[in-house]
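Sequence dictates fold. Next comes a concrete instance:
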Amino acid sequence: MSLKLRPLFPRLRESKYRGSETWKPSLAQLSVAQTDEIISKGSNFKPDRLIFALIDLSRVSSPSGPALSILASRCSDSSNLFFPPQIIETLTLFSTISFSDPTLFKFLTLRKDDVLNEASPRRLVLLIEALSQLHLPIFHESIWTPIRENLVRVLPELKRGIPNLVRSLASQGCPDSELMHALVKQGELNWKSGEIEHSVFVSLIEAASRSSLLRDEVVRLVDESKSTRFTDRQSLVLYVASNRVGVNTSRFSASSLFEDKFNAARSIELLSRLEARLDVPLESAISDSIETFSRDTDYLKKFASFNLDSLSRISTQQDQLISIMLNGMDPVLDLLSGEKLFHLARAARMVKADDSKIKEKLKPLVKQLTVRQSRLLWECGMGNMDNLFALPPLMPLGKEHLELDTVVVGPYTLERKKNETSLSLRVPLYQQGDRGIELRRQALEEESGTLVTLEYTDF
């Protein structure tokens, strides 16, 4: 089974900036008969049939949780039937859907020798990306040694995949300073030799800024790139990385990105996706652009929902503007998709605005949401969705082999410390200050009726 279908999906997500959602596969649903077939026969599927079922489930917005659970169990039960590329594709599909299960880690470990023996650079990148997105422990003692050995082996061949590798390793707090520095150095050499584009190099700097081990490298690379001409969008990514490691960002100017509604929408979403922290000039440019476009009905229908959600996450200074804008959305609420209403609901929850009208319009459309969006919507007080299976906890380094005392609350797995009644949610350090994380903590506390603390850590 090839992976040729995978590159299609990122382009589909960009359609939200084009204002057309009628053709998106994510609005489709599997028939009851198709879902019932997966549930009733999935425990006997052969690898090809199982992968086709996962592709079908990845194309719909609200796939069946029981169907996914059965397919995950089937993977570990029949791991000996899979070829190594099929194992990688299976894990990638589960990560695309955002469904994780501990049996998937068993599925990999049972065949780790076949998967990792002489693995190609592409296979290693896809595997580490999938493990990161599934919250499965990359640094578990059973797999980390062969993964590292193979990364070192293919290091000279790694090019465009390096930013994704560094980002995935940083998300679980890679403690291997030597490897992380080697990856960044290889990316730098690729850039200076012209083997990768400016955009890939800039993405590498941003990925490296997520690891405290690489702070000095990021500072050096930002300084060395001063003489390079980057596009405004690339400069915006450099701004995020520089701000994260404490470098002065005054030289980065991306004001032209906020002059028209299409570029402004994409830029604000990019800042949110990179979990940026804004300085005063950039925050002013964003708020001015949103205020300027607020009287444009086309902007309200196509872009405002994404922008308000993004701004509510990355800024604590624009709550009043966001609340005013949310009130101004009333005339177009009936024209919005479930995805756009979800973003409005999340923005309203974060700035503590009245969200009753938005939720009323959203309730009949929740089946349009992906698993990841449904998980986030649960944090806004709209739970009880049948596809919300809990993500495993991010694993603390050095304790991967231990049985943790964990508690499932809604779609998240929390840790309970010994001799304590409170619960803790482990979060990567670079997400500190993200208001979406605090919203998650509050929702978990309300659902569990127990104190929930955030543990920001490099693991």
About this structure: The radius of gyration is 22 Å. The beta strands are 406-409, 412-416, 423-428, 452-457.
